[in-house]
Amino acid sequence: MIEGLWLVARWDIKQRLRSRRILIAWLVLAVVMTGLAGLLARTYHNQSDWYGAGDWRTQAGPGIFGFTVLLILTFSLVVVPAFAASAIVGERESSTLATLQVTALSPGQIAGGKLVASCVMAAAFVAAGIPALGIAVVVGHIGFWRAVICLLVVFAEMVLICAIALGWSAVSARTLVSTVLTYLTTFALCVVSVLVFGFIGSLMSIEDVDTTWTVSESQMDQYARTLDTYYQQHPTVDGTQPPAPPLDQCGWQTSIYPRSHSQFQRVWWMLLVNPYVIVSDAAPLPADARGDLDRYTRNYSDPLAVIASAVRSARAGDPATYNDCFVRTMNIVGGDATSFTYYQIEPNRDGSFSIVRQVSRPEQPRDTAVVVRPSSPVEPSRLTMNTPLWPIGLGVHLLIAAGFFWLAVRRLAVPYGKLPKGQRIA
Hints:
Shape: elongated
Radius of gyration: 28 Å
Number of helices: 16
Number of domains: 2
């Protein structure tokens, strides 16, 4: 069984490597992705003043790495179907498929060998992104195993695309038809899944009045004036602590007008078939980031974490009753009518708060004293990655791949039975 499968795979790989198009496409892909990754790193470096001296690599690293991984996935989704969609229909068009079918090779061995050959070619195109990923790892101080895991998951998604292309190649009469169907299926997984999710979730929205556990607007304005006074008295960091938020003044605040609450928590599972969601969810994050995804995405421009956070936010839904008593990063406005001052207030794990004043640009953070948070009738919600979602998506993709592979094996069986009009067996 294995010998026959590998025989078909080796023969198919040799046939593909005879064409210079493969090598040229590989080189172009590697150069383009490496150039884009270098350009991305250069762009972040030009913005290094925003991150602070000597710290731009640590701050910008997750962003450079995340965009590079998505870049590799996108180019792989564009290139791989073009080469995998001719696996069987190409043999039929060149009248060489019958040569395989009359041998002792079973339909499963032929289809399996074709799939292995397509996966090897897909692995080569994924590997074309290694130089680009190397730039992101070196420049962004990213762990080696994080890069390896992301590449493996991207390759797993390419195996799915190869299986889909194999199935369409077996039932199509022309290579062009097989290629178009493969691209349409890929488009459905990547784009249509998001559109259907958003459309159905919007249709299921309901009108309701928000009830929030927080401070009133007047109390927030009073706190902003207190911060104004403090920063006027202490314009530079001098060891004093700014006033902490008035947690003891939090209470129920009801909105005047109802608003539309989406019901995405009912259809969030539609996103699990999206390759971008699977790769983003499988990307390892630091231990502290997995426990507080919101905090991580605010501090680092990591697109992989942003996608994973968006899926989990859709899963959590949009409740009408929630705790907003300084449990997340908040921005308040101080100053007077002639000039505004912005304050960013972020809770720390020890119970203190980090306050950043921004006039023309963000200043150095200052921490308040540790504050004992009063009990709240509503527990604050927090997005975490403690429960991975990507195994579900990969499981669904495995079933899809198995279905298309079975379709290819079924179509390669001889005698087949009644064929569609205008299509021959081999």
